Amino acid sequence: MREVSFIRQNIEKWKEVEKVVEQAEHLEPDYLATVYTDLASDLSFSQSHYPTSRITIYLNNLASALHNSIYKNKKEKRSRIITFWTKEIPLVMLNSRKELFYSFLIFAVSVFIGIISTMNDDTFVRLILGDGYVDMTLNNIKNGYPMAVYNGSPEVPMFLGITLNNIGVSLYIFAMGLLTGFGSGYLLFQNGVMLGAFQAFFFQQGLLGESMLAIWIHGTLEISAIIVAGAAGLTLGNSWLFPGTYSRKVAFMNGAKRGLKVVIGTLPIFVVAGFLESFITRHTYLPDMLRLGIIIVSLIFVLFYYLYLPNTLRYELSESKN
């Protein structure tokens, strides 16, 4: 649809929305929610088709004003708990798909660097993982239990410790966006090199397959969530570094809200990953097909939730406007 046709088709409705914003405190919450959902649909369509247009800026400001009017002095609807995960997060990921791609790219390149460095320098893995961890793992391999590190403590304390640590890491990656995208990018690079060195180390010991069947039971979700948290950090950093047509303050606030939603969306994933690492990964005697099945299901979920669902919503929004 041409931009002029899009505007002509909806301009009267947007004028009505302006009146709704002015009278929001006197209107029913359900009605406000319906108006906001429709406006958010228009905004998403405009961002996809006319990203640099003034109409996109106008709709973004109007949506922000309506959002603030709805939630300033009103209780959240219970149904929003569901729509937050099924609609809001996917829509935010749709608008952050560029940051997600760069986050994945940084992580993938850093994993490759970790692998190459470990394969060409025998001391590199000790520099990255530490002498204590490497010596312990070599001793476990010698004793026939290469994955014994995952069986070193009771399940519940391990679950709590790992989950809280991973959530802390994701929040730290997000917060480092305050130092521009380079802050979050550095932490992504650091974690990627560590993973690459870890896998290359087990390859050198002839245990690549076994290590992958063990660590990727939880690692598929955990690493994916870290990459998504990296996208949140890049969103935050780019918002004030490249404000575009917005003031730096407004751009930062919008980026912070988007990024915070993205990182909040990773919290349940870290909980599930922590559960798998604490209660499942340690059981290396489980059938390989079962372990591989858990990995595949986890990967399918990640691809569905962070790639397929946002693109499906984008298609639906486009179709509704044509």
List the helices and strands and how they pair.
Layout: H1 3-22, H2 29-49, H3 54-71, H4 80-95, H5 97-120, H6 124-129, H7 131-142, H8 155-175, H9 181-204, H10 208-241, H11 248-264, H12 267-279, H13 288-321
Helix pairs in contact: 1-2, 1-3, 2-3, 2-13, 4-11, 4-13, 5-9, 5-10, 8-9, 8-10, 8-12, 9-10, 10-11, 10-12, 10-13
Give the H and E element order.
HHHHHHHHHHHHH
The rough form would be described as elongated
Question: What's the domain count?
Answer: 2
Largest sheet: none
The end-to-end distance, rounded to whole angstroms, is 6 Å
Radius of gyration: 23 Å
Low-confidence spans: none
**How many helices in DSSP terms?**
13
Range of helix content: over 70%
